[in-house]
Amino acid sequence: MKAQTSWYQAVWRWHFYAGIIFAPFLIILAFSGSMYLFKPQIEGHLYKDLLTVREVGTSLIAPTELMEKVTSTYPGLKISSVTFPDLPKSTVKMSVEHEGIASTLYADPYTGHILGIQDNSKTFSAYFKKMHSQLLMNGTWPNRLVELSACWAFILTVTGLYLWWPRKKSAIWGTFLPRFKNRGSRTFWRDMHAVPAFWLSLFILILIATGLPWSGVLGPQIDRIANATNTNYPPYGTVYMEKPDSVTVAKDVADNIPWAAENIPVPSSISGSYIQLDMNEIVGIADKQSIQKPYTISIPQDARGVYTISTDHVRPGSDATLHVDQYSGAILTDVRFADYGMMAKAITYGIALHEGRLFGIFNQLLGLITCIGLILISISSYFMWRKRKTNGRLGAPNKPRDKRTTIGVLIIMLIFGILMPLVGLSLIVVLILDLIVIRNVRPLKHWFSV
Question: Cross-referenced PANTHER family, in alphabetical order (predicted)?
Fold first, then answer.
C-alpha cells in the first residue's frame, strides 16, 4: 500500500508541474483548433462572394481560356496552380503572386469574371492555423513549443488516467460523475477537472496523435518510419520511369498534396524541342484518370518541371497525386489512396478526423466537444492549484520518500522522452535545473517542495 501511495505521489508530481507549465498553451491550441474545425462553414459565410458564383451557367469556359482572361486582366500575374471545384456553384481558385504577395484569385468558371483576389495570409483559416501551429509568432521555435505542448498533453492525459482511475466502487463520484455540492470547494474543482478528463481522455489522445504527423520534429520521424517499413507511399509509385535522383519532393512544387505523398520525389519532364501541353489537355488527363474533384493542377515552373495533379480530398479514399510530363503528357507518377501502405492510410484517416472532415458535421461536433472539454480541464486545474497553494510554496505535491519510486517514474518519463524527442530535451533541461539550481538555492528548494 505504501509503494502504491509513493507511485501515486511521484506521478502526481510530474502531472502537476507539466500542467502548470503547459495548460495555457493547451487552452490556445484547443480554442484555435475548435475554430479551425468549422473553417468550411465560417469561410463559406465570410467569403461567400468570392467562393460562389452569382449564377450557375449552362457551360464552362475552357480552362486555358479562363486563365487567359485572368492574365489579360492582370498583366504579368503569375499563376502557380488552379483548383477546379466539385460543386457547380463554386468558383475556380488560382494560386497567384499578386504584387509580390502569395494570394488566391477567384474566377467564375462560366463567365470568366474575376470575383476578387485575397491575400493568403489574411484569411480566417490562415489566422487560426498560425495560432494553432505557431501561436501567431514567426520562426521555428514557436512551432517547436506547440509540438512540445502537444507531446506533454499526451503525457498529462496518460498520467491523469493513472491518477483518477477508480480504485473502489465509491469512486464513481468524482470519476464518472461530478459532485456538485459545495460549489467552489477544492472537491468541486477537482471533479470539474477529473470527470471531463476521464470521459474525453480517449478522444484527447486521438486528437493529439493525429496532429503529430504535421509536427516539425516528430513528423519527419513518423514519415521516415513509414518509409522504412514500406507502409507509406508504395515504391512502385513512380513505375512509369526510373526513380528520380532529384531531392525535390511533391510538397515543394505543388499545392493540395496529401500527407502520404508530400515527400514523393518529383520526376523531370523530358526536355527537347516540344510544345508544352496547355491546361485543357492536362484537365483532360485528370478526367481520363478519374481524379475526383476538387483537384488542383500545379503548373511547371521551368523547362524540366512537371504538371502535378493532386487532391487531398475530403473523402480520403479519393486522394491522388500524379506527376505528368509537361510535353508528352506521360504519367510519371501515379499514387492513389489504394496504393498507400497501412501506416499512411491510418495517418490519412487520422488527419481527416483531426480536421473534422472524416464524417461531416458529427466529426466537427466531436472535435468541438473535445476542445471545449480540454479548455475546461485546463481552467479547472488552475482553480485546483489556487485551492491547494499555500503562502511561500508553489503548492506542488510532496516528493516521495522512496527514491526507488522516484527513479522508476523518471525512467518511464525518459521512455516518453525517447519516443518524443522534444520531451526528452525538456526533461534534460528540467533535470539540469533541478540538480544544479533548485537543489542548491534554498528559497527555490522550499518553493518547489524539493
Answer: IRON-REGULATED INNER MEMBRANE PROTEIN-RELATED, PEPSY DOMAIN-CONTAINING PROTEIN
Q: Which tens digits make up the pLDDT trace of 57-88? A: 999 999 999 999 999 999 889 999 999 999 99
Which of the four CATH numbers 3.10.450, 1.20.1050, 1.25.40, 2.60.40 does domain 58-128 have?
3.10.450
110 in Cβ contact with 78 (< 8 Å): no
Tell me: the pLDDT tens digits for 86-124?
999 999 999 999 888 999 999 999 999 999 999 999 999
Q: How far apart are CA 63 and CA 280, in angstroms?
A: 6
d(CA 233, CA 345): 9
Q: Which residues in the chain are classed under CATH 3.10.450?
A: 58-128
pLDDT at residue 440 in the model: 81
Q: 298 with 340: CB under 8 angstroms? A: no
Q: Which three cell numbers mark 423? A: 520531451
Residues 7-26 as b/e (b if ≥16 CB within 10 A, e otherwise) read bbbbbbbbbbbbbeebbebb
